[in-house]
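DM from R.C. (forwarded with permission)

"hey, sorry to bug you on a friday — could you get me a structure for this? deadline for the figure draft is monday and I only need the backbone to look sensible"
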Amino acid sequence: MSAFFSVMARNETLRDGFGALNVSTQFTDFSSTALPPPLRFLLAIIMLVMIAIGFVGNAIVCLIVYQKPAMRSAINLLLATLAFSDIMLSLFCMPFTAITVVTVDWNFGAYFCRLSAMLYWFFVLEGVSILLIISVDRFLIIVQRQDKLNPRRAKVMIAVSWTFSFCISFPSLVGWTFIEVPSRAPQCVLGYTEFPADRAYAVTLIVAVFFVPFSVMLYSYLCILNTVRRNTVRIHNHTDNMCLSQVRKLGLMGLPKPHQMNVDMSFKTRAFTTILILFVGFSLCWLPHTVFSLMSVFSRQFYYSPSFYITSTYVLWLSYLKSVFNPVIYCWRIKKFREACLEFMPKTLKIFPKVPGRTKRRIRPSTIYVCSEYQSAV
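My reply, with the result:
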């Protein structure tokens, strides 16, 4: 044990010496590399608006699921957890970044720098884990025709995802990678390091946050798209054949012809399309940040370039945009959330009239579409 602590102390000494090297070789005049003051204030105001929208929008999602037992399905519990992680990101990370964008100086201490970096990766990783669970659930329902996820299992998966996210992000708090107080970035970011252990952890963190979820979700959605396309063609062909056979069997001039059959695929495809939009938003917001983090850790030239501060500012702003993006998509695409939001508003602001409830529907893998005489029965 004493040998272990001596090795750790020696590593910290080396890291401190390397940090001193970083300070001695970095650019000292950051006023010339930062954004112009008017643009900094404008960007900070936009971030404050993003904080307000992200907090209010995601809080409404959580309250709707909490107050309405009918909304506590497995998928809604996952969406509420995703909204909660975005709320935490808006409260514990974005305000400090907005302040630092204006002041171009980190005023919250070195320890809080590591803590904020840990919270940033923690809440982001939790949101990505929820998106991954949702994509696998859609894959099982639409492609494999297996509905494995009920509310009880969803709660277990949520607890596992929180534990996993904490275990992956916590080492950054205790110094398993090089995180510098942001003299050249508006937030504590992964810094350039030549230590193999630091680089290994940084790669593990980035792979867990982006590459593994992106690969699994991309494969799932490609399979889902292919399945939906094949099922749509097969169902329409089956419907046309059934209708023609019914017409031939009637054979009498006086009897009315059966109406054309319309198979109700909108419920399945719309729910899938909503999750697909969330996936596209995640990819567009996080791909630049992933490339930026890898270059920061491995490229000394990029990390010490004059454009690093401006690049980090825009990349961080884009990564925070995802927390605002999700509730807007919920209200746009999910009718139940939109109606429940209108029902929830009178209790707080007394503005909108109460909307009557709607019949509950649920995706079932065993659904069979039958061509009846007047309409398709589900």
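R.C.: lifesaver. The beta strands are 179-180, 189-190, 370-371, 376-377.
me: no worries. Residues 32-377 form a domain with the Rhopdopsin 7-helix transmembrane proteins fold (CATH 1.20.1070.10).
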